[in-house]
Specification:
Layout: E1 10-11, H1 12-19, H2 23-31, E2 38-39, E3 45-47, H3 49-63, H4 68-114
Antiparallel strand pairs: 1-3, 2-3
């Protein structure tokens, strides 16, 4: 069974080891609003895989020279972008479904205009007779040729 990335699994000491930082740094990040770990019933911090990924992103930004306030703002904007992308994806799916529904309705409406509801449909379509020929293709409407004496 796959594990949820937001499942709070790691105590602070394990999370600090996995992130490569001191536990006091995790407390600082929490005070600055960079991470928000879950709490156990005894109010102990529990970190998830998603929290560890966020700690990795914080480490990338700080090693690039971004201060903690800048990191907070970058993470905030990245979260906003992710939310907007999710919203855009949902809107695209809804628009495609709506377009499909409109296409189906339009198709059925055009069909009703051509073939009114309740109209009997012939099983086969007959051609009108050609000029000067009957339905059997013989001159004179199928009566044969006249003889002139």
């Amino acid at each position: 069974m796959a594990r949820d990335a937001n499942s709070a699994l790691y105590v602070m000491s394990v999370a600090a080891d996995l992130a490569g930082v001191h536990p006091q740094t995790l407390r600082l990040y929490e005070r600055k609003g960079l991470v928000d770990p879950a709490r156990s019933a005894g109010a102990h911090r529990r970190y998830s895989d998603a929290d560890l990924a966020r700690l990795g992103r914080i480490a990338e930004l700080t090693s690039a020279g971004v201060n903690l306030e800048g990191v907070r703002r970058v993470l905030e904007l990245e979260d906003l972008i992710a939310g907007l992308r999710d919203q855009l994806d949902r809107s695209r799916v809804e628009a495609a479904e709506a377009a499909e529904t409109v296409e189906e309705r339009t198709h059925h409406q055009r069909r009703r205009e051509v073939i009114p509801d309740g109209a009997e449909m012939p099983w086969h379509v007959t051609r009108p007779p050609l000029c000067g020929r009957g339905t059997d293709g013989v001159d004179g409407g199928g009566r044969g040729r006249r003889r002139i004496s």
